[in-house]
Give the backbone structure.
Amino acid sequence: MAAQLSDDELSAALAGDPSGFSAVYTTISPAVLGYFRARGVDDAEALTQDVFVDVLPKLTGVKGGHAGLRTFIFSVAHARLVDYRRRSARTPQLTEFDPLQDQRWSRSAEDEVLGSLGGIASTLSMLNDEQREVLVLRIVADLSVEQVAGIMNKTPGAIKQLQRRGLLALRELVKEKDHAAS
């Protein structure tokens, strides 16, 4: 059973005495808070405070004793709940940003480069294995002729010849693609 105000506390509250209001708040606010929580209010404590801020200046006009006071306070609480629901209906629901759910997309610089490398990779695949390997090691890996010769177990002269033939073949392939695109 909820705590009850004494008759002296009720009289003090209705007379505008701060100690009477304190007693009203201490006695009835837990029930108002429970009402808001039961109705699913997100910030029930704040709404409870709003109710008692509204009740304070109107206490001196309350009639009906204990029952009248509780009825008055809960009618204010109900009005605040209706206001809260209306405000919630008009306020957009905020959600945390989830990059996996974001449907917006644009190509990044990395995507552009990788896309263009795909075209290069397909063109390079038309060269023979040794020419392709020499060009990739020389250009992409930025290795010297001597380093590539050591990796491929060939002479530096052979690497130079493979590079020259690979570049000539690559030039012809790019020209063919340009003519086909025109």
Notes: The CA atoms of residues 84 and 148 lie 74 Å apart. Residues 122-181 form a domain with the Arc Repressor Mutant, subunit A fold (CATH 1.10.10.10).
